[in-house]
Backbone:
C-alpha cells in the first residue's frame, strides 16, 4: 500500500491496495474476484483487474490481481497487499515475493506456508469449521476475511451475495450469508486489519472488461451486424453482443472461419449496415484479403484485432503488441485504412463510434489494435465517461427512402449515378442495393467510375492511376479530424517515454512513481492513431526531447521501426517485454533508471511472478 | 452538396424513373442488359447462362434494383458486370459468404450468386457447405466447365479422373466432386443441374430456383470452349437427359441421391431434390421479424436501453 488514510492532504489517494487470488483453473477464482471487484466499484473505488491464466479449462495456474484505489488505477500495480492462495502451488509461487506488511489468507487444512518473508501476516483459516459442509462457499469465506481486513462493512458483502446467489434460491443466499458472517467475525477476532479503511465515495463505478467495452461501443455506434469465429482473447466481444443481440435488434452470426467472417461482414456492410467483427492475430491473418476488398470496393467495416502473443497459435492467453506490422501490411496492394490503438477500456468504448463515423465518411476499413491486456483486462469505468448516444455520421450514403440522417443524397434517382465518381475529395456518394436508379457493381477488380472492370475494356493505365489517386485523395485531409497526441508532463524532462495502445496507463504510472520515489522527471508521448499518423506533430514534440525511450510489449521494436519509417526518428533507447505478461510499473521504472545511468539502451525486464 | 430536399421530394424522386412510377415500368430483356457486353470467348457456355438468367428475371417480373448478383473470381464470375442488377464482384471463393451477409442485412433483396466450379467447390468449398446447411435464401448458379478457365486451363474439383489439363499433363489423379449428392447431403433445399445448351429448360429451372424459399443450387454445364476439349457441347448433347422425362419425384430423397450419382453415358439434368418445409435462415432470425431490412433501420440505442446495459455493469 502506498498511502495511509491520514495522508490525504493534497488530493493524494487515501488507499491503493492490491489483492491477488490464485489457484488452478476450475477452482472458481472468478466468483470471489467478481464479488470483490463489484464491492470496490460500488464504493466508488477505481480498480484494475488482470487475470494471468493459461489455455486450460482445468488445472494449471491462474492468478487474478485486483488493484483498487480512490485515485486513478491504470495498471495492475507492482505488488500485492493480500494474497489468497487456493492451492499449495499458488502459495509456493507467490509467498516469496509478498512484501512486508502484507497478508496471506489460506485454508490451514490444505495449504502450508514455507519460508514466509519478514513482516508478512499469515492468516490461516479453519475453513472446514467455518463452512460447515457447504464446500462451494469456501471462497466466500476468503472474500469475507479480505473485506473485514479492509474495513469494508459486512452489509456490502451481504448485498453482493444477495445479487450473485439470488438466482440459486433463498437457501443458497442464506447459507452463503451465514458462512460469510462467520468468516468476517473470525478475521476480526484473529487477524490484524490494514492500517487504513477502504473509503466510500459518493459515486459508484461500473466494472467492465475491454471486450465488453468494445461490444458496448459497437452497440452505441449502431452496429447491426456482428460476425465472429471464436478466438481468444477476442471471444468476449462475441459473447457480450450475442447476449444482448435479440433485445437490441442486432444480428450475430458465428461463421465457419475468419475468411467467411470478414466477407460476411462486408456483405452486410455493403447492404448498408454498420457491421463489425473481432478476432486475434491468427484470425486476422485469414481476413486480410477481404479487408483489402473493403478498401477496394469502398465498403466500410470495423475489425478489432485483440493481440495475443504470437506467431502462429502462439500463447493464446498471454498479451503482446506484436501485430502492428500485420495490421499495417494487411492485405496486398496499397489501400486506405484506419488503424487505431485505444489506450484503455473507456477509450476502447468511445473509439468504436468515432471509428465508424470515420470509416463511413471515408469509405474504407477501420482496424482496432487492442490486446489481451485491455480486452480481457477489467477496469472500473465512470458511467459519465461513456457516450452511449454519440453523433452518428454515415457520410455520403444513399438509402431508398432518403432517411439516412436526412442525408441530402437520400432518395435521388439519378440515372447518371457513378458509384466511384472521381470527385474532388475522392469520396463518392454510396448507394446501397435496393435504391432505384443507382444500380452498379462493386468490384474487387480495379474498376472505372461506374464500377466497370478496367480489364473488361482494356487495362487502361490512365484509368488505373485515376482510381488509385481517387481513393488515396480521400485521406489527404483526414488528419485534421483526429486528435493529435500530446506531450504529458514538463517540457524539460530528462527523457520522453513513447508508446502506443495498451501501455498508456502503466507508462504513466511508472512516470509518477519515478517522480515520487526517485525525483526523476520524465514525460510521456503516447500514440493512439497509427494510421493516419500525426508525423509532423510527433516529430516536432520529439525534436525537443532529451532522450527518446520507446516502450513496447514486443521483441523487435515494431513501434520503434514504424516511428522511424514515418518520421526518421530513431529512438535513443528501448524498453521491451515479450514474455507474455504485461509491464508492471516498476519494470519501466527500472528500465528508465538503467537507461538514464547509461547502463544500456535496450532494457528487457524480468517478470518476477511465475504465473 | 447541401441541397434542401423535403421528405415529399424524396418519396417522389425515389419512385419516379424517367417520369414513370417504377412499379409500372415494364420489365423487358433490355432492363437486364448490363453496362457492357460480355467479354467471354465466342462460344463460351456462360453466354447461355447469362441470357437464361435475364429471361428468368423478366418472366418472374422482378425489378432490377431489387436484385443483386454476387460473384467470386473466374471467367464465370465476371457475370455481374453483364447484367443490370445491383452487383458485387468479390474475391475468389468468397461470394457465398458475402451474399449471406447481404441477404441477412437486406432480406427483401433477391440474391443470386454466380461463379465457377473452382470458385465454389474448390477455394470456396467451406462456405458452400455452411451456406447450404444454413439454408440461406439465395440462388447459387455455378457455371461448371470442369476447368479453371480464367487461369488458362488447370484442373478443377469437377475435372474428370484422368483429364489432361495444364496442371495435370499426364492426367488428373483425383476423384471429382459430384455437386448434386454433395448439395443434397449438405442441406441444400433445392438442388438442380442444367445445361446451357438447353435454354428453355435452364430458364425454367432458374425461375424455380429463384422462386424457391431457401438455398437453391443450380449447377449448369457450361462448356469452356478454349480450355476443356473433353467436355464439349458435343459431349453433353448426347448425354444429358431430362429428369422430367423419366418421371422423377423431386421430394424422394433417396431416389434423388441415386439419380444425382448417375454419370457416364447418361447424365440427368433437372431438379433432383426440393423440400419446402424448412425455414430459411432469415425466417428463423427473430431480429428480422419486424422492422424491415436490417440495413435500413435507424442506428444507435435509446437512453433506456443503454441505462439498462450500464446497470448490469454496476
Ligand atoms: C486467392 C486467389 N487465388 C487464386 C486466384 C486465381 N484465380 C482466379 S480465377 C481462378 C479459377 C477460376 O476457375 P473457376 O472458378 O472454375 O472459373 P472459370 O474461370 O472456369 O469460370 C483462379 C485460380 C485468385 N484470383 N485469388
Ligand atoms: S476461357 Fe473458357 S470459360 Fe473462360 S471465357 Fe473462354 S471459354 Fe469461357
Ligand atoms: Mg471453371
Residues:
Amino acid at each position: 500500500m502506498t498511502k495511509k488514510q491520514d495522508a490525504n492532504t493534497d488530493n493524494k489517494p487515501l488507499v491503493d491496495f492490491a489483492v491477488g487470488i490464485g489457484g488452478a483453473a476450475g477452482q472458481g477464482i472468478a466468483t470471489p474476484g467478481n464479488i470483490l471487484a463489484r464491492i470496490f466499484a460500488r464504493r466508488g473505488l477505481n480498480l484494475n483487474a488482470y487475470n494471468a491464466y493459461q489455455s486450460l479449462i482445468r488445472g494449471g495456474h491462474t492468478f487474478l490481481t485486483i488493484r483498487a484505489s480512490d485515485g486513478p488505477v491504470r495498471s495492475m500495480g507492482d505488488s500485492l497487499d493480500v494474497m489468497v492462495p487456493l492451492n499449495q502451488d499458488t502459495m509456493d509461487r507467490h509467498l516469496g515475493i509478498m512484501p512486508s506488511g502484507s497478508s496471506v489468507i489460506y485454508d490451514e487444512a490444505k495449504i502450508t506456508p514455507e519460508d514466509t518473508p519478514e513482516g508478512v501476516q499469515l492468516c490461516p483459516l479453519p475453513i472446514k469449521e467455518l463452512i460447515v459442509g457447504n464446500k462451494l462457499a469456501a471462497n466466500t469465506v476468503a472474500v469475507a476475511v479480505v473485506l473485514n481486513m479492509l474495513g469494508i462493512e459486512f452489509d456490502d458483502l451481504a448485498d453482493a451475495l444477495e445479487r450473485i446467489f439470488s438466482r440459486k434460491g433463498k437457501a443458497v443466499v442464506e447459507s452463503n450469508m451465514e458462512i460469510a458472517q462467520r468468516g468476517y467475525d473470525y478475521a476480526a477476532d484473529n487477524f490484524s486489519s490494514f492500517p487504513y479503511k477502504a473509503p466510500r465515495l459518493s459515486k459508484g463505478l461500473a466494472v467492465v472488461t475491454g471486450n465488453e467495452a468494445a461490444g458496448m461501443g459497437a452497440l452505441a455506434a449502431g452496429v447491426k451486424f456482428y460476425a465472429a469465429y471464436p478466438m481468444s482473447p477476442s471471444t468476449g466481444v462475441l459473447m457480450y453482443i450475442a447476449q444482448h443481440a435479440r433485445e437490441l435488434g442486432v444480428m450475430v452470426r458465428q461463421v465457419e472461419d475468419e475468411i467467411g467472417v470478414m466477407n460476411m461482414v462486408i456483405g452486410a456492410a455493403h447492404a448498408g449496415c454498420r457491421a463489425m467483427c473481432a478476432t486475434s492475430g491468427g484470425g486476422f491473418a485469414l481476413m486480410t484479403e477481404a479487408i483489402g476488398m473493403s478498401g477496394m470496393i469502398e465498403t466500410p467495416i470495423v475489425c478489432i484485432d485483440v493481440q495475443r502473443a504470437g506467431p502462429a497459435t502462439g500463447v493464446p492467453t498471454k498479451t503482446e503488441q506484436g501485430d502492428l506490422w500485420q495490421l499495417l501490411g494487411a492485405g496486398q496492394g496499397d489501400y486506405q485504412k484506419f488503424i487505431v490503438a485505444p489506450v484503455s477500456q473507456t477509450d476502447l468504448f468511445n473509439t468504436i463510434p468515432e471509428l465508424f463515423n470515420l470509416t463511413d465518411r471515408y469509405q474504407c476499413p477501420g482496424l482496432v489494435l487492442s490486446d489481451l491486456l485491455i480486452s480481457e483486462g477489467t477496469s472500473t469505468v465512470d458511467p459519465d465517461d461513456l457516450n452511449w448516444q454519440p453523433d452518428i455520421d454515415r457520410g455520403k450514403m444513399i438509402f431508398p427512402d432518403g432517411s439516412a440522417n436526412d442525408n441530402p443524397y437520400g432518395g435521388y434517382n439519378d440515372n447518371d449515378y457513378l458509384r466511384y465518381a472521381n470527385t474532388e475529395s475522392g469520396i463518392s456518394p454510396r448507394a446501397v442495393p435496393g435504391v432505384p436508379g443507382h444500380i452498379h457493381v462493386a468490384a474487387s477488380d480495379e474498376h472505372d467510375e461506374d464500377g466497370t472492370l478496367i480489364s473488361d475494356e482494356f487495362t487502361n493505365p490512365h484509368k488505373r492511376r485515376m482510381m488509385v489517386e481517387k481513393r488515396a485523395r480521400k485521406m489527404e485531409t483526414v488528419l485534421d479530424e483526429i486528435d493529435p497526441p500530446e506531450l504529458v508532463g514538463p517540457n524539460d524532462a530528462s527523457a520522453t517515454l513513447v508508446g502506443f495502445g495498451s501501455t498508456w496507463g502503466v507508462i504513466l504510472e511508472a512516470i509518477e512513481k519515478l517522480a515520487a520515489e526517485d525525483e526523476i522527471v520524465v514525460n510521456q508521448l503516447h500514440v493512439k492513431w497509427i494510421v493516419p499518423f500525426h508525423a509532423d506533430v510527433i516529430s516536432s514534440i520529439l525534436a525537443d526531447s532529451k532522450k527518446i525511450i520507446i516502450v513496447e510489449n514486443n521483441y523487435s521494436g515494431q513501434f520503434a521501426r514504424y516511428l522511424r519509417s514515418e518520421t526518421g526518428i530513431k529512438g535513443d533507447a528501448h524498453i521491451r517485454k515479450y514474455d507474455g505478461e504485461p509491464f508492471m510499473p516498476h519494470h519501466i521504472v527500472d528500465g528508465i533508471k538503467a537507461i538514464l545511468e547509461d547502463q544500456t539502451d535496450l532494457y528487457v525486464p524480468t517478470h518476477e511472478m511465475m504465473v | 452538396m447541401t441541397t434542401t430536399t423535403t421528405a415529399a421530394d424524396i418519396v417522389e424522386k425515389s419512385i419516379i424513373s424517367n417520369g414513370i412510377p417504377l412499379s409500372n415500368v415494364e420489365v423487358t430483356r433490355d432492363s437486364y442488359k448490363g453496362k457492357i457486353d460480355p467479354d467471354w470467348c465466342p462460344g463460351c457456355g456462360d453466354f447461355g447462362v447469362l441470357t437464361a438468367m435475364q429471361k428468368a428475371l423478366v418472366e418472374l417480373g422482378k425489378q432490377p434494383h431489387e436484385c443483386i448478383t454476387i460473384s467470386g473470381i473466374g471467367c464465370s464470375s465476371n457475370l455481374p458486370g453483364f447484367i443490370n442488377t445491383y452487383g458485387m464482384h468479390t474475391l475468389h471463393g468468397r461470394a457465398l459468404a458475402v451474399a449471406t451477409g447481404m441477404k441477412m442485412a437486406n432480406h427483401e433483396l433477391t440474391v443470386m450468386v454466380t461463379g465457377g466450379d473452382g470458385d465454389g467447390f474448390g477455394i470456396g468449398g467451406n462456405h458452400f457447405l455452411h451456406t447450404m446447411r444454413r439454408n440461406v435464401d439465395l440462388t447459387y448458379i455455378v457455371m461448371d466447365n470442369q476447368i479453371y478457365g480464367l487461369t488458362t486451363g488447370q484442373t478443377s474439383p469437377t475435372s474428370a479422373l484422368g483429364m489432361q489439363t495444364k496442371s495435370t499433363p499426364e492426367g488428373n489423379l483425383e476423384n471429382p466432386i459430384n455437386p448434386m449428392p454433395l448439395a443434397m447431403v449438405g442441406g441444400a433445399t433445392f438442388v438442380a443441374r442444367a445445361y446451357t445448351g438447353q435454354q428453355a429448360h435452364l430458364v425454367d429451372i432458374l425461375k424455380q430456383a429463384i422462386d424457391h424459399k431457401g438455398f437453391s443450387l443450380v449447377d449448369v454445364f457450361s462448356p469452356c470452349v478454349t480450355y476443356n476439349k473433353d467436355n464439349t457441347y458435343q459431349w453433353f448433347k448426347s448425354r444429358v437427359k431430362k429428369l422430367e422425362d423419366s418421371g422423377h419425384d423431386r421430394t424422394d430423397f433417396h431416389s434423388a441421391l441415386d439419380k444425382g450419382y448417375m454419370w457416364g453415358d447418361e447424365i440427368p439434368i433437372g431438379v433432383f431434390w426440393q423440400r419446402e418445409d424448412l425455414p430459411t435462415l432469415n425466417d428463423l432470425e427473430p431480429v428480422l421479424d419486424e422492422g424491415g431490412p436490417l440495413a435500413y433501420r435507424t442506428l444507435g440505442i435509446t437512453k433506456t436501453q443503454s441505462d439498462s446495459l450500464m446497470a448490469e455493469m454496476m
User: Anything to note?
Assistant: The first strand of chain B starts at residue 16 and ends at 17.
